[in-house]
């Protein structure tokens, strides 16, 4: 079966711009979570969506937002980009929640802010 | 919230030797403990997991042990091979919430 698909793979943006990242989960998976991965902070939880509703949220500023569509595909948006937003953004899908089934991760979107 | 500590941060072993990575967690309500392997340029991949009703689980050369009383769990890799070289992450759920808190990762290098 197809895995988790994230697009684009790479992005270069300028400070102050906004960016939208896309994630298509495994077919049948209703939970989609987003993580930010940096060398200094490791894997940091951004938010989780389940059946089009945000179910959990991490400790990130309001510039980071997301949504989930009826087909479970998800997007995350970062507005007013800062240099510190440069990171690998990972999408993870799960059948119904990571606390019972774990995640299947995509390959990530590498965002560079210049 | 959950706090997961992972040690060591780097581990170098010779091919054929065993490797052990240890994690501790803080939330006693956690009941599911996965391990992920991340290779360069890829997302983390689930390699093994354990639930709180068992103390050990094995899958070929990989095993995980869990001590709920002490709140720690460990990943054991036997007969290591060069393709085992990667970064390994442990994780634990934040209580009953459907999200995982990850350890800081262990970079495993298997040398010939």
Question: Can you put this structure into words, describing what you see?
Answer:
The complex is a heterodimer of chains A (114) and B (112). With 114 residues, chain A is mostly beta strands. Chain A has one helix at 98-101; strands at residues 5-7, 10-13, 19-24, 31-38, 42-50, 53-57, 64-68, 74-78, 87-94, 104-105, 109-113. In chain A, strands 2, 4, 5, 6, 9, 10 and 11 form a seven-stranded mixed beta sheet that branches. A four-stranded antiparallel beta sheet of chain A has the order 1-3-8-7, with no helix packed on it. Chain A is globular. Chain A starts with a strand and ends with a strand. The relative contact order of chain A is 0.32. The model of chain A has no long low-confidence stretch (mean pLDDT 94). Chain B is mainly β. Helices cover 0% and strands 56% of the residues of chain B. Chain B contains no helices and eleven strands. Chain B has strands spanning 4-7, 10-14, 19-25, 32-38, 45-51, 56-59, 62-67, 72-77, 86-93, 100-102, 106-111. In chain B, strands 2, 4, 5, 9, 10 and 11 form a six-stranded mixed beta sheet that branches. A five-stranded antiparallel beta sheet of chain B has the order 1-3-8-7-6, with no helix packed on it. The model of chain B has no long low-confidence stretch (mean pLDDT 94). Chain A binds chain B through residues 4, 31, 33, 42-43, 45, 48, 50, 55-56, 58, 90, 92, 94, 96-100, 102-108, and chain B through 31-32, 34, 36, 41-46, 49, 89, 91, 93-94, 96-105.
N-to-C CA distance of chain B: 41 Å
- The low-confidence runs of chain B, each spanning 5 or more residues with pLDDT under 50, are none
Mean pLDDT of chain B: 94
Structural class of chain B: mainly beta
Cα Rg of chain A: 13 Å
- Largest sheet of chain B at a glance? 6 strands, mixed
Which protein chains are joined by the largest interface, and how many residues does each one contribute?
A: A-B, 26 and 25 residues
Distance between the termini of chain A: 37 Å
Please state the oligomeric state of the protein chains shown. Answer: heterodimer
**Sequence of secondary-structure elements of chain B:** EEEEEEEEEEE
Largest sheet of chain A: 7 strands, mixed
How many runs of DSSP E, i.e. beta strands of chain B?
Answer: 11
What is the strand content of chain A?
over 45%
Strand-and-helix sequence of chain A, N→C? Answer: EEEEEEEEEHEE
What share of residues of chain B is helical? under 10%
Number of H/I helices of chain B? 0
Task: Kindly report the average pLDDT value of chain A.
Answer: 94
> What is the overall shape of chain A?
globular
């Amino acid at each position: 079966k197809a895995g988790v698909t994230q697009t684009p793979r790479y992005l270069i943006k300028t400070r102050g711009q906004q960016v939208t990242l896309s994630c298509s989960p495994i077919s049948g998976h209703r939970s989609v979570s987003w993580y930010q991965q940096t060398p200094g902070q490791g894997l940091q939880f951004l938010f989780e969506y389940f059946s089009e509703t945000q179910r959990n949220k991490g400790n990130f500023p309001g510039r980071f937002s997301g949504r989930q569509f009826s087909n479970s595909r998800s997007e995350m948006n970062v507005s007013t980009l800062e240099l510190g937003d440069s990171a690998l953004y990972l999408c993870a899908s799960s059948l119904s929640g990571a606390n019972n089934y774990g995640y299947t991760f995509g390959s990530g979107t590498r965002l560079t802010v210049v | 919230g959950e706090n997961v500590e992972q040690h060591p941060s780097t581990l170098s072993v010779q091919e054929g030797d065993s490797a052990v990575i240890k994690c501790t967690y803080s939330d006693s309500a956690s009941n599911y403990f996965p391990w992920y392997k991340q290779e360069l340029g890829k997302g983390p991949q689930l390699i093994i997991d354990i639930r709180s009703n068992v103390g050990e689980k094995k899958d070929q050369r990989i095993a995980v042990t869990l001590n709920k009383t002490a709140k720690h769990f460990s990943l054991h890799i036997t007969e290591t091979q060069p393709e085992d070289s990667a970064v390994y992450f442990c994780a634990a759920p934040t209580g009953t919430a459907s999200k995982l808190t990850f350890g800081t990762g262990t970079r495993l290098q298997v040398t010939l």
